Structure formats: structure tokens, C-alpha cells
Amino acid sequence: MTLPVGWPDGIRLIRFDLLDSTNEEARRLASAGDSGPVWITARMQSKGRGRRGNSWISEPGNLFATLLLQAPHATAAQLGFAASLAAADVVAAHTAPTRVQLKWPNDVLLDNRKVAGILLETVGSGAVAIGIGINLAHHPEGTETPAISLDSAAGRTVDPEDALANLAARFAAWYGTWTSQGFAGLKPHWLKRASGLGKPIRVRLADREIKGVFEDLDHDGALLLRTDTGLSRITAAEVFLGESVR
Length: 246
Known about the structure:
single chain, alpha+beta, BirA Bifunctional Protein, domain 2, SH3 type barrels, 2 domains, 7-stranded mixed beta sheet, 5-stranded antiparallel beta sheet, 5 helices, about 25% helix, about 30% strand, globular
């Protein structure tokens, strides 16, 4: 198989025309004993999904890809930050970088609308699947978190294959930072792009919603929320910014 120009060394690539989802294919590979590293991509998905089981619009022209690799489960969630930084780099390569921000824990925003998302799942003993979807050509309408595509925002038609090559290279770079420096190496770069930092946000937990000020990230990537009762450490939640905070 011919690899894209600039593809990182030592990383395999499997392409599909149609899959249920690239994360599910990663799960099947892991069950068969494959722990990567391998990127899986599909032109279309029939059952694409995002965080919390939300469906992911999977029309041809967008990028759908999952990286299967070995990572300690205790710290694997930190790779979501590496993935969001890499996806932000891909989007920023085709528009003004100042228009690209990150929403905790791992969404990429373009003009304050979601342009990319990450779904990280453990898929076996010591293996994780890092699913990344980028709205290159299409985006859903009427979603709770407003969405956008790179084409509609910047008027740029980006080939998914080119975007994948850039994504793989940028993730390899951020992964190298993580392996050598831990989350401390990712944190300042993520915070530079953080949307809502120092501002009021609304956080939806499994059993309630709370409001506060997004103060910082903890040493492991947890969100630190300043409320009337003190500082709360949030490890898993849906975050709402701007007008949706009211």
C-alpha cells in the first residue's frame, strides 16, 4: 500500500471505503491481537459516533480516522489532548490559526463552532483507540453544540487523504512530546488554544449541571472549575461556553 507523503515512520495505514465506524474496526483488530500502531480510515461510516454515544455525521468528504496503539490505560485519556492539538493543527493549516480553539476535553472549534471531535476508548489490554473526525466538507445542523465545516468557514476544499497525512504527522509529534514530558509537555500548548479559559462555563455531569469559571487544568488534564463553594475537579463532563452558559 502506498503511504501518503510525509507519513510518520513505523505507523501502518488501513483504508476502507465503508465501515460501521473506524473505532469499531480498531476494537476488532485489538480483539484479534493487533495493538498497532495503525491508523484506520474510511471514506464513509454507517454508524459513526462521538462522545457519550452521540452519532457523528459521516458523509464522504470529511475525515474519519482512528489510531490504534498501545498506551497505559491509567494515563491514556491524556492522549485525547495530544489528538485535539493535532486536529487543531490540521484545521489551522487552512485558515487563520487564531480562529481555531480547543474546548475541554477534546473538541476543536473553528469560529466558536465544533469542527472536529475525538473519541478515545480502551479496546483491549494495553491498547487504546483514538477516533478523530474532522468536518472538512460537511457539518450537521441543529446540534446542541453548533457545528461548522472547514469548507463553509474558510472556503477551502481539503482532500481527506491530505488531512489524514497531516494529522498523522502532527499526532506523532505531540505523542513524542507526551512520551518524553508527560501531560506537562502538552498542557501549556493546549491552554494557549483553550476556549473559555478564565470565563464562566456550564458543566453537565451525569447527574447535574454546575456553573463556574474555567480556572485551569490539573496535572492530569482534569478541568478545574471555580464555583461559589470552592474549586471543583472535573474528570468527565460536557462543557458549554458563551451564550449556552446562561
